[in-house]
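Lab notebook page, bench 4
Experiment: in silico fold of construct C2
Operator: M.H.
Input chain length: 776 residues
Purpose: comparison with the prior construct
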Amino acid sequence: MGIIRKPSIRRSGVRRQRPEHEQSPWSRWAEHIGFWPALAALAFFVGATAIALLGQPALRYSEGQSIDQPIPARVEFTRVNPARTNEARQAARAAVPNYYRINRALLARILQDLGELREALGGAANYDEFKAAPIAADLPLTREEFERLKGIAPRVFEEVFSKATESLAAELLRERIYDRRPTPEERSPRATRAVIIDEAGESEPLDVTEFTPYNQKAQVNGRAADLSQIFRYPLSSLQPTVKRILANRLTSEPLLVFDPNRTQQAMQAAEQAVPEQQDVVEKGKPFVFARPGQGLTAADVELVQEEQAAYQRFLESGTPQARAARRRQALESVGTSIVFLALSVSLFSLVGMYQRRILEIHTRTLAFSGLVLAALLAARIVDVELNIKELTLAPMLVAASIITIVYRRQFAAGVMVLAGLLAVLAVRGGVDLFVAMLLGSFATVYLLGEVRTRTRIITAGVVTGALLFAVSFAFGLSAQQEPHYILTRAGYAASAAVAAAMFVTAVLPYIERVFKIATALTLLEWRDPTRPLLQRLAGEAPGTYNHSLVLGTMAEAACEAIGANGLLAQVGALYHDIGKILKPDYFTENQQGSISRHDHLAPSMSLLIILGHVKDGIELAKEYNLPRVLFPFIEEHHGTTLVRYFHHVASQKQPQIAVGKHDREVSEVEFRYPGPKPRSKETAVLMLCDSVEGAVRALDEPSAGKIESTVHQIVMDRLNDGQFDDCDITLKELHRVEESLVKSLVRFYHGRVAYPKARGKERTSVSGPPRPAAAG
């Protein structure tokens, strides 16, 4: 039985559309959030994965950490043994002899004394004249010895004396009278060898036990007596005198002077000549051992670093074992990448659900992605360079603070759950780090719901730091770490929170500029009535200024009722009608009396003036450097609503057509504001406040029932008109806004008692009858 084939759709020239249920999950997700956000998510995934996988891994252990099992070596490696190396080098230093130089100055003084003795003997005519010479005052030369010496012929005396002096000088150069007292520069006061340095060079190492210490007078006197024997016949009578001269000089200072510089050079050379002593650690053998009651020392951590470096060298080698290890590592990286892809998709899906505007504006997308990636990179760098996991909390808390300040708290909390998972995986942290990061981020998000003072950020940092200290302390106790280690790590966690708060406080103005937002601090500054723009509004359009003040109070209360930003709505209300400054008399609240300037204008001209206050407001906002976050209140507070009064007037003035009847149908499109429609809850609330306040102000008798009916009618009109299609306000929130507006308007425009007037006069309400005029 043959197979019946369906005609090929491709051959028929018709391209088959792939059913939606057959699309890949990635295609459906990309189609849902858009091409640019999908591309940004892909770029974010690549960046986050690169941050986590590239570069050297951080150490798994830190100083002070207690381990319950020894750490085995993954590969065989050699390590330097500092103790053995130091011992060998100290032995080499100890083997170096002390170096001495001959005291040439002492030799010169001895020879000078002998020369003066010779001159005194040769120049004295008698003994008394000889004793009067300075050199002879203390010499033991008797009168008989003097007479005997004088009996020698002068020429013979000079010749014999010179030869004896030369012989004595030669013997002194070979003499070993030294100072053995220890000095700071000496290697050891018990050195057993010495080297003599002379013009001829250095001697061989000599045994210092054969040397004579110069402070041992008896030994020095004996050496002086031996040296004086050089003066033989016919100068034998001078031996006691020469002995006295030598003894006086040789006991006052050493003949051999210690040379510290040369000794130090020799010791350094000997020490440098000793190579580092290395130990071989076999693969699988423990190289760091667990010591109960004692954490890892700095030397242990250094050993772990050496083992990690050896393992990295092993991976770079071309051995089969290295290739197998690289394959296992590649599989691990693939698994990490898959997890990062899932987290990246989840993160951008979260953004698409709760902060769609981030994905619609490229600069916001880049700023948001860059913030999270920068936090991940900073955490990775801190982990690798400092090896302190608790300090990686700081950049993540900075990110949590910025996202909370820029966006909503609920959104920031969701983002930090996913960003915290990315950070913990990037630094290879454990459950304790993730819990600390999660709790710290949640505390920061909760405490920074609205920043109205700079001390609020610091306070949030201190409170978060205290929480992290307690959490880290608890995890340290559960891991049975040592008390010192627990306190140190808990202190790092607390300091990370405080440092993050200080950093955010310092860069807060730049955060506002990058993300084009205004924090509560900035909004409070612009709420100040002394601001030049508000001063100008109060002076040139006082009715609009009072109207804006009322709207600010109403908008703040309504936004607070639905959890929106009340302060932002209040400040936005103050500036929403600044465009009326240029033509204040054309708007109802600024007109005096019952005459309107629109009475003599065509409806189309009046429409241009009314619509122009939005554009004029934007120009003034730019001129006065109003924060960009307030611009939407100027542009969106009317949305695309109909300028109903002038549309009615235009319909009344529509000319009669050929059929003989009036056509009062004028297109509403021409009499609508250009928009855009409100895109946030705050601007939507302001639109309602502006609409209901003007309508209630025009009521003759604004009773509570009339106010409630009017507010409900206007809310329904705006809802049916599609003015809330572009914002995420719900029907439940609209109901709460309506209730809040009714309460506010009842307080502002409650009915008043009609007081009796003089006889014959009518009773009238204080509010007076309404008059038609232009609405803005």
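Observations: The chain is about 60% helix and 5% strand. The mean pLDDT is 85.
Next step: discuss at group meeting.
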